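Query structure, 194 tokens:
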């Protein structure tokens, strides 16, 4: 189990050089843009432009803050996304572009290699409640808004907005998460396709 602070995430240029990405987790460890099985990252979209294309990759995008953002995916009408919108899934091979309709956007990108891995991104809301969790990874919890406390056997760790927690595939420990007042999270679940 690993706590990941947004301010400490490594930054690197987008595959197409048009922006910056902050890698949260990747498998195998240290995989490049060309050979990952799965990758979870945040990106800052500060101007209009095309998305990088990823052949053989399934992708889900969720706005964490800023926007609205117009997302144009090949063969479909532009979708206007906000920080309240549900996650949007599409093929990484598709010609895709973004257009800002407001403030700079921070988004969450989840990508899995088609035929090898699958993923889901599920919004969760906690309102002054405690939610028991089981380690059955790999999965990631990221705080979309609010403050969350992760309660382990001997300690409590606080996660603020855009911080995340990665549960490894080998972990089986139980833990709980608790919101102070109200918090919105995203749960990213990674599964083998075979």
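Result returned for the query:
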């Amino acid at each position: 189990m690993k706590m990941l602070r947004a301010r400490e995430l490594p930054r690197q240029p987008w595959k197409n050089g048009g922006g910056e990405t902050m890698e949260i987790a990747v498998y195998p460890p240290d995989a490049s843009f060309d050979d990952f099985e799965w990758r979870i990252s945040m990106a800052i979209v500060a101007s209009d432009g095309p998305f990088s294309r990823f052949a053989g990759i399934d992708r889900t995008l969720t706005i964490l803050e800023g926007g609205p953002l117009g997302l144009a995916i090949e063969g479909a009408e532009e979708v206007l996304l906000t920080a309240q919108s549900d996650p949007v899934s599409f093929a990484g091979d598709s010609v895709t572009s973004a257009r800002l309709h407001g403030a700079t956007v921070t988004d969450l990108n989840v990508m899995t290699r088609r035929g090898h891995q699958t993923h889901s991104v599920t919004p969760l809301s906690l309102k002054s409640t405690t939610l028991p969790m089981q380690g059955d990874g790999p999965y990631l919890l990221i705080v979309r808004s609010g403050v969350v406390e992760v309660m382990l056997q001997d300690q409590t760790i606080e996660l603020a907005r855009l911080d995340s927690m990665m549960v490894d595939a080998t972990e089986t420990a139980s833990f709980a998460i608790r919101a102070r007042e109200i918090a919105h999270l995203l749960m990213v679940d990674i599964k083998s396709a075979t």
